[in-house]
């Protein structure tokens, strides 16, 4: 699955998601895009978007999106690392249009 990491998603997580193709918004040249434009761009090339922006669902109309969105509860790599199995399971279960907010 092609996955885009949002700005706050810790880059070390990419090593834990074996079998997936990962890019960051920064690597794609999308660091300055607003959330709406970023989601629209991501939807053209990616199957999933991983973010730490807990307000995304309130700021954007997510209805009808094919892009699966996974919201991590923190930007802290040590905390995510302690819960990496939960993240991996959630990523592997994503389907088009899903919106999943994790909690640890």
Any overview of this molecule?
The protein is of the alpha/beta class. The protein is about 35% helix and about 20% strand. Strands 2-1-3-4-5 form a five-stranded parallel beta sheet, with helices on one face. It is globular.
Summarize the structure.
The chain is 34% helix and 18% strand.
Summarize the SSE layout with pairings.
Layout: E1 2-5, H1 13-16, E2 21-24, H2 35-45, E3 48-51, H3 56-59, E4 68-71, H4 77-82, H5 84-93, E5 99-101
Parallel strand pairs: 1-2, 1-3, 3-4, 4-5
Q: Widest sheet: strand order?
A: 2-1-3-4-5
- Provide the succession of SSEs: EHEHEHEHHE
Give the CA-CA distance, first to last residue: 24 Å
| Biggest sheet details | 5 strands, parallel
Strand content: 15-25%
Mean pLDDT: 94
Q: What coarse outline follows from CA principal-axis ratios?
A: globular
Q: Got a strand count? A: 5
Radius of gyration: 12 Å
List key phrases describing it.
104 residues, alpha/beta, five-stranded parallel beta sheet, 5 helices, 34% helix, 18% strand
